């Protein structure tokens, strides 16, 4: 009986050691970390446009207050992404769990629930040395028609370390 258990354990260990690795390891994961690292942190939205959509069920104004971009990785469909949070004050106070990744030119944040509206996420680029400027991305699959050029832009600054100690 002991031999059978030991043999089974050996086969399981061998199977696990030969299993495909995480997409967050290797060259691709290191490049993603290098590009994404500058965007990681707590961003406070200083200005955000309001947006009213033509669909009355989605006509709520939105007030995004904080963007938190963590460095915890998650593998989804053979893709390495980072965890994050979007904090809203309007239409209801809530924190949404999102995923994100960075490239040298911009950061893309996505993963909003469908009941929030036809949003695919956010895209933001550097605005100066320590600020981001971005816009909401719309998801065409949700069937809402948005006039060309309609955007809800925002600017956000990095939260200072001393500000965390004050709260």
Task: Give structural notes.
With 167 residues, this protein is an alpha+beta fold. The chain has one domain (22-160): Lipocalin, CATH 2.40.128. Helix content is 20%, strand content 41%. The protein is built from 3 helices and 8 strands. It has helices spanning 2-18, 26-36, 161-166; strands spanning 41-48, 63-76, 79-90, 94-102, 107-110, 119-126, 131-138, 153-158. An 8-stranded antiparallel barrel has the order 1-2-3-4-5-6-7-8. β2 (63-76) and β3 (79-90) form a beta hairpin. The relative contact order is 0.17. The model is unreliable at 1-19 (pLDDT under 50).
CATH topology-level name:
Lipocalin
Question: Would you tell me the structural class of the helices and strands?
Answer: alpha+beta
Radius of gyration of CA atoms, rounded to a whole number: 21 Å
Calculate the mean pLDDT score and round it.
Answer: 76
CATH class: Mainly Beta
Q: What percent of residues adopt helix (DSSP H or I)?
A: 10-25%
User: How many helix segments?
Assistant: 3
Q: Strand share of the residues?
A: 35-45%
């Amino acid at each position: 009986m002991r031999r059978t258990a030991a043999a089974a354990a050996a086969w399981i260990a061998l199977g696990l050691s030969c299993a495909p690795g995480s997409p967050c390891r290797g060259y691709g994961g290191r490049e993603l970390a290098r590009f994404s690292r500058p965007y990681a942190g707590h961003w406070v939205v200083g200005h955000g446009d309001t947006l009213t959509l033509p669909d009355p069920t989605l006509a709520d104004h939105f007030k995004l207050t904080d963007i938190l971009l963590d460095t915890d990785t998650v593998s989804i469909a053979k893709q390495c992404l980072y965890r994050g949070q979007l904090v809203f004050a309007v239409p209801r106070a809530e924190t949404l769990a999102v995923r994100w990744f960075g490239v040298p030119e911009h950061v893309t944040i996505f993963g909003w629930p469908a009941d929030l509206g036809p949003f695919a996420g956010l895209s933001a680029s550097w605005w100066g040395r320590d600020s981001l400027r971005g816009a909401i991305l719309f998801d065409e699959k949700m069937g809402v028609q948005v006039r060309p050029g309609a955007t809800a832009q925002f600017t956000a600054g990095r939260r200072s370390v001393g500000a965390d100690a004050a709260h």
